[in-house]
Design a protein that fits this description.
Strand content: 25-35%
Radius of gyration: 32 Å
Number of strands: 13
Order of helices and strands: HEEHHEEEHEEEEHHEEHEE
């Protein structure tokens, strides 16, 4: 390899020393920013930069001061009718009454995304709600369904038309109270510098431990879809919008609310009607998607 050197040294036998013409002055004008950038890079390599990853609990912020949130889940076994009955998901009353693992190990999973546009979205966090958080109702014991319980109560003198027990139904009331809050709180960052967006899009799946299947849930009764003949639009059918709030001096300071979400509200940046604040028409409703 040859090296071209621009410095030429002319030797003279009469000279007692040789002068090498190398510059000794440096011009740093305009290089200050580069020096600072280099210092920052070196610092980051040597020391981990501190970020505030502290999280806080967000309550559900309904307007009744009890902070409860209400869900309703509807299943089908024929793709024609949907009802809030776990029997349509394959469970019978004795399994629910006796807490069989095939039932108690089932759960609902809520996934929260940064956008409802599926080709662009990223999942931000998830929450799990066990079926045992569901409300209970009293039902008559069917002799053919549970003869053991039927004869047990009959032998204790309970009239045949009053033999009942409590079973779970897929209507859920969650509150910030001990024993009934799994799937209630949202844990999220206090520091908005880490992630500034405050609105997420919530979808739902049901894991059936009896069949080992994940069941997709949609936010509208699929009969509407069937009657309209329209395709299943993810942005329209899969999500509710969940918005986080910081309420200043109010208690709770950190809370969230849930809203209907569709193509129109997402496009113009608005929110639909509020859902989840009451046990009747304002429940957050999910319906089993039946793929025939």
């Amino acid at each position: 390899m040859t090296v071209n050197n621009r410095i030429q040294i002319k030797a003279n036998l009469g000279d007692s020393k040789i002068v090498v013409p190398l510059g000794t002055t440096f011009d740093e004008t305009g290089r200050e920013d580069q020096v600072r950038l280099w210092e920052m890079v070196e610092q980051q390599d040597a020391v981990n930069i501190i970020n505030d990853y502290e999280t806080t609990r967000y309550y559900y912020g309904n307007d009744t001061n009890d902070y409860k949130i209400y869900y309703g889940f509807h299943f089908t076994d024929d793709g024609v009718t949907w009802d809030d009955d776990y029997r349509l998901a394959g469970f019978n009353h004795p399994e629910m009454f006796r807490g069989k693992k095939s039932f108690t190990r089932s759960f609902f999973k809520f996934d929260f995304y940064d956008t409802p546009v599926r080709v662009e979205q990223k999942i931000m966090f998830s929450m799990v709600m066990p079926v045992t958080n569901s409300d209970k109702k009293s039902v008559l014991v069917d002799f053919d369904d549970d003869p053991q319980e039927y004869f047990s109560q009959l032998s204790q003198g309970v009239p045949a038309n009053q033999i009942t027990y409590d079973v779970f139904e897929p209507l859920t009331t969650l509150a910030p109270s001990k024993g009934n809050n799994e799937g209630y709180y949202i844990q999220w960052f206090k520091n908005k510098d880490l992630y500034s967006n405050d609105t997420f899009y919530m979808s739902c799946k049901f894991y059936n431990a009896k069949t080992g299947e994940d069941v997709r849930m949609v936010n509208k009764n699929p009969n509407i879809l069937n009657s309209s003949g329209k395709p299943l639009e993810p942005m329209e059918w899969y999500y509710y919008a969940v918005k986080l709030y910081v309420g200043g001096n109010v208690v709770p300071k950190y809370y969230y609310k849930t809203y209907n979400s569709d193509n129109t509200t997402y496009t113009d940046g608005s929110l639909g009607s509020e859902k989840g604040s009451g046990p009747l028409g304002s429940r957050i409703k999910f319906y089993q998607y039946f793929n025939s």
